[in-house]
Amino acid sequence: MRAGELKHRITIKRPVKSKNKFGETVSDYLDIYSIRAEVKYSEGTRQTEDGIIFTNYIVTFNIRQFYNDIIESDIVEYNNKRYRILSIVPFEKSQFISLKTELINE
């Protein structure tokens, strides 16, 4: 992987559970890494449900290999959008990791 291709800043977030002031268990996300990545849009769909348009994009983020503790339950934040990690594929020879993700419609 060429360093010049890592043009975009992404944030890897990990879900954490905590209790709020009412004693309820709530989920939040903790920033794990803020790193540079190559971004590739591979496919997308558009659906209408109850008059609301939902878009779904599959985006691949390629990052350097030394971030090897990223897991599928983490999410990627890029351009103020959150992406669910579908798969993590390491490429040992090229020394990078490919994160295949989908847009989270909130």
Count helical runs. 0
Order of helical and strand elements: EEEEEE
Low-confidence stretches: none
Please give the largest β-sheet.
6 strands, antiparallel, barrel
In CATH, what is the homologous superfamily? Bacteriophage SPP1 head-tail adaptor protein
| Beta-strand share of residues | over 45%
Kindly report the CATH topology.
Answer: Thrombin, subunit H
Look at the structure and give the mean pLDDT. 89
Regarding CATH, which class?
Mainly Beta
Coarse shape: flat
Tally of extended strands? 6
- CATH-defined architecture: Beta Barrel
Can you list the strand order of the major beta sheet? 1-2-3-6-5-4
Which structural class do you get from the secondary structure elements? mainly beta
